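fwd from M.: "can u put these together and see what the complex looks like"

so here's what she sent:
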Amino acid sequence: MKEINVALTGGAGQIAYSLLPRLISGETFGTDTKVNLRLIEIPQVVDKLKGTIMELIDCGFKQTGSLLATTDIKEGVQDAHWILLVGSIPRGIVVDGKKIEERSDLLRINGGIFTGQGEAIGELAQEDAKILVVGNPANTNALIGRTKSNNPTQSWFAMTALDANRAKAQLAEKAGVDIASVTNMTIWGNHSPTMYPDPYNAKIDGVSAVEAINDLDWIENEYLPLVQQRGKAVIDARGASSAASAANAAIDTVKAVDSQTTEGDWFSAAVPSDGSYGIPEGLIFGFPLRTSAQGSVEIVQGIELNDFAKSKIKVTTEELLSEKEAVKDLVD
Ligand SMILES: NC(=O)c1ccc[n+]([C@@H]2O[C@H](COP(=O)([O-])OP(=O)(O)OC[C@H]3O[C@@H](n4cnc5c(N)ncnc54)[C@H](O)[C@@H]3O)[C@@H](O)[C@H]2O)c1
């Protein structure tokens, strides 16, 4: 069997609970690959991971390698091939007697976390390590982590696949088709309510989703808010945030990055901009991506953007620039 080292922060959290079994079941990295899992947590909850590890052992997957729980990010990411940065400090938590409500405070607190994690990854993980940031604010956390990693051969991604899956599901429901009919979904920009899920370039059975649905008012006025506010709708209904679908999206992203993309299709994740579509270089931005037969991930070029799309992309770009400004001492 081949072996892969996978590190994950936030191992005792909600998303991790859904994610971990699927990382070692053969589903994500293949049935021929043994997965050595390193779970990284903060000291207050690291002991809970013992229970999680007991459950992972009890799953009895043949692909289970070594299982480690640690508070030491360096130990966790040493020689890691894939690193899933799921842990972060949520809005509403009290830090040093202050309730963290403002996005700028959230950015700064998580910025501190992603500084140390980025440095450790750059120094100790594999030279071709792939890093997926799930913890919010995901794009700017990834920007900080990547900057601090200072390692150009590693690849950083921030997760927009949950948004893409939601965006596909809403189109499928509206069109009355199977989800498999919906392809070519892009989430442009930030994983936040300013994201732009692109219905013009998404396809339903090979035709533009806008044409297939033929209801411009719904597309431009109802569809976008439905996708952008879906996370809140889940919280309102479930009383807890979307963990199973977020875990599923993380697995979708790992598999999409690691395998050649189906001809004609693409997938969605945020990556460092190379200036494509006029997006400022280096910003971690949601783009349409393809993985080549050789394994490199490329931004799909030549996608047409109408004025509606351009206006939405401008808003999400400006938000990401203002997030960058809020942490500029960490990313300059
Ligand atoms: N990108 C997306 O599409 C998406 C979707 C859903 C959730 N999220 C985000 O994912 C994150 C995790 O969600 P959850 O529901 O699992 O939250 P959770 O609060 O249940 O778990 C987060 C875990 O991270 C841990 N953690 C905090 N700081 C850490 C650090 N420095 N090192 C290691 N672990 C640390 C916490 O102790 C906690 O166990 C949140 O930020 C959430 O907003 C992102």
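replying to her w this: The pocket of nicotinamide-adenine-dinucleotide is lined by residues 9-10, 12-16, 40-42, 45, 86-90, 113, 134-136, 138, 159, 162, 191, 241-243, 246, 249 (CB under 6 Å).
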